[in-house]
Write a structure and sequence with these properties.
18 strands, 7-stranded mixed beta sheet, alpha+beta
């Protein structure tokens, strides 16, 4: 089975590794987005998928959009089927038709729930307790194609978007391989998507801003959904103040939304319901640190209010 693999971020690396190490798979090429500036110095850096592909000696195609020229290059690869995991660009119909058995997408949701670029993040922000992954035949629409296979996973107490994505990327790798094989062999039985549709648009930095007037449960869901990217934050003294995981503290209900105190060794912040406890924080211009250490140095007894 000769395949084209398309993916970009770190979550797309485990499926690539799994496919590359299968004896029944030949990877004709890896398609990924172009090198992007990273860090404060904006150093052009290959995508995680590009780095893994080059480490394995696989041909790499870099492109941020699938145009006519790239479509012809894809057609010339002679691939039987294409696999897609978070590539980051739409694939037009001409490119879909350039591969005999089509393009199979591994998407990290139970379709038609959470169609879009940030399915796990949006699911956690909404408070979903069960997440999953689906493989489906890619169409010109947004994650609308018929489903080939699914798996489910329960959200754990300490989960963030990062841990859930890592887990689903690994458990979804065999699912993707099995779906590719079934499509090429002609044994696949695609099932049209049914049920309520929900959308998962790409997160922005503003999605990470904590709204302290929301209930504590909603605050906790938001923080876990935006961790590690784009990251949870609030405003203190006019500057961005980053937050790590927060814990619900229903035993403290006397704090106003955004009011922060050090109490019994715990850093508590009021919300629209009861308090949450901060675990680790990163003040502007400083490194991430233990929240209680920050609070002691800040002397929160004098009163701190997050905006």
């Amino acid at each position: 089975m000769k395949i084209l693999y398309a993916g970009t971020p770190s979550v797309a690396v485990p499926p690539l590794v799994h496919l590359a190490e299968r004896p029944d798979v030949e990877i004709a090429a890896v398609l990924t987005r172009t090198d992007a500036p990273v860090g404060r110095r904006k150093v052009l850096t290959p995508s995680p998928v590009a780095e893994e592909a080059e480490r394995r000696g696989l041909p790499v195609l870099r492109a941020n959009r699938v145009d006519a020229e790239l479509t012809e290059r894809i057609r010339g690869l002679g691939a039987d089927v294409a696999a897609v995991v978070a590539y980051g660009a739409l694939v037009p119909q001409a490119a879909l038709d350039a591969v005999p058995h089509g393009w199979i997408n591994l998407h990290f949701s139970l379709l038609p729930q959470w169609r879009g670029a940030a399915p796990v993040q949006r699911a956690l922000m909404a408070g979903d307790t069960v997440v999953g992954a689906s493989t489906f035949l890619l169409e010109a629409g947004l994650d609308t194609g018929p489903v080939l296979g699914t798996l489910t996973d329960e959200v754990r107490p300490d989960d963030t978007a990062g841990t859930v994505l890592d887990r689903l990327a690994r458990s979804g790798s065999p699912l993707l391989a099995e779906s590719l094989r079934a499509v090429v062999d002609g044994t696949a039985r695609p099932v049209p998507q049914e049920g309520e549709v929900s959308l998962a648009p790409k997160l922005t930095g503003e999605d990470g801003r904590v709204r302290w007037t929301e209930p504590a449960v909603a605050v906790a869901h938001r923080v876990r959904g935006v961790t590690p990217e784009p990251g949870a934050w609030t405003v203190l003294d006019g500057q961005r103040f980053k937050l790590d995981r927060v814990l619900a503290r229903p035993d403290h209900r006397d704090l106003a939304p955004g009011q922060c105190v050090l109490r019994g060794g715990a850093v508590l912040v009021g919300t629209g319901s009861y308090a949450v406890e901060l675990t680790r924080v990163q003040p502007a211009g400083k490194r991430t640190m233990d929240a209680a250490a920050w609070a002691r140095g800040r002397n929160t007894d004098t009163g701190v209010v997050f905006e």
